[in-house]
Design goal:
Number of strands: 11
Helix content: 25-40%
Strand content: 35-45%
Structural class: alpha+beta
Shape: globular
Number of helices: 2
Length: about 210
């Protein structure tokens, strides 16, 4: 009787041990899988961050007044941004990258840079434009820009998001409603664009 009971207890202990080992093995596999996923995610995030930083030092076509308050002195020049900004010479203004992302817009397997660039000429108003940049051996270079519709881009808009899906660029902002002051945009607005034949066009105007 005692031997039979001992054998049963021994068998139960072995089964319990096997279950514990299986559970520990599953936990170790899960932990290892989670670690690998987190490492890959970190590397992907770091890579994207490093790539996006290239747009902060990219080459843009910028228009500005060479003489403050003199509209006849407006010029357009090809300039290199530094840390996402460019300060206009001999004026109080500057341009800067508001939002930026990377996406393959033309299906060639190479990501274009997409940026919203705002310009401030020293006053209280800012003017934005959407820019697409192509990847060149020496970095990203502006390929096209658009600041239409004016009702969408002009004034102190608050950019909420810049995203690309299936080649369609979507910009979400808070723009100015009928009762909004210049300082305080509260009207949600969305505009879609496509990049085709080296031009940016409003997506909802394509037929």
């Amino acid at each position: 009787m005692n031997n039979e009971r001992s054998e049963k207890m021994s068998g139960a202990k072995k089964k319990t041990s096997r279950k514990v080992l299986c559970l520990v093995s599953l936990m170790l596999v899960a932990a290892a899988t989670f670690w690998l996923i987190s490492q890959n995610s970190h590397r992907a995030t770091q890579q994207t961050s490093d790539q996006l930083s290239l747009l902060d030092s990219a080459t843009y076509n910028i228009s500005y007044l060479e003489k403050s308050a003199d509209n006849s002195s407006e010029v357009t020049k090809v300039v290199n941004f530094a840390d996402g900004k460019y300060y206009f010479p001999d004026s109080r203004g500057y341009a800067y990258v508001e939002k930026a992302t990377l996406a393959d817009l033309n299906g060639d397997g190479i990501d274009e840079g997409i940026a919203l660039v705002a310009s401030n000429y020293g006053g209280t108003l800012e003017f934005s434009e959407l820019v697409v940049l192509s990847k060149q051996p020496n970095g990203y270079v502006e390929a096209a820009n658009i600041d239409n519709p004016k009702s969408f881009f002009e004034g102190n808009i608050m950019v909420q998001s810049l995203a690309v899906q299936n080649g369609i660029i979507t910009v979400d902002i808070f723009g100015h409603g009928p009762q909004d002051a210049d300082c305080c945009a509260t009207q949600p607005m969305e505009q879609k664009f496509i990049f085709e034949n080296d031009k940016i066009t409003e997506a909802n105007t394509i037929t």
